[in-house]
Amino acid sequence: MMIEHVDAIVDMRRFLTLEKGSTPNKGAEVLDNLIVTDNPNGFNPRSRTNWAADQNLRIMKEVKQADVLFWVSDGAFDMRSQRILRAFVKIMKAAGVDFAILGDEELDSGDVARRLGDDATFQRLAKRNLATLGKYRFNRIVTTDRTLSTACATSIRNFAPRARSRITRCCTIPPLSTSW
């Protein structure tokens, strides 16, 4: 007998969040932040590129296309993650990778909302991200975010025929000599 406990738990969370308006622990605050600022911690969306002020990065809005779209994720708001982002940028530049970031256009993947049972917020963020991705030409999406949600990755992959993209998490990238 197979017990589908994960599906049952997700359904219970969805019921509590959407029908009862009850979210466990700080979940309600996280969902409010996602609704207001498009990121779970409530940071000003305009500060998403502050970590890169001295990096001279190309922004998709300005260049319209690049071989690699670097999906920065919410690491842009975390001091420890910012060091990782800077190091990864340094590696990509040293390797001569043609890359750009979305900058202020990048939103949270919505995975936290989905996990908390708020499918409406997840769908809203996913649709907005896909609309943004659809405006630009790139061959691959690379991220340092090991937690980039499977749901977000699947959404982007489903959009891949139009965006001509694929996702690579840098933590699973093969050595640079074979991945670029």
Automatic annotation (TrEMBL):
GO cellular component: plasma membrane
Chain ranges of the Cysteine-rich domain: 76-146
Molecular function terms from GO: 4 iron, 4 sulfur cluster binding; metal ion binding; oxidoreductase activity
Keyword Iron: yes
One matching Pfam family: CCG
Swiss-Prot/TrEMBL keywords: 4Fe-4S, Iron, Iron-sulfur, Metal-binding, Oxidoreductase
KW Cell cycle (keyword) present: no
Name this protein carries in UniProt: Fe-S oxidoreductase
Organism the protein comes from: Serratia rubidaea (Serratia marinorubra)
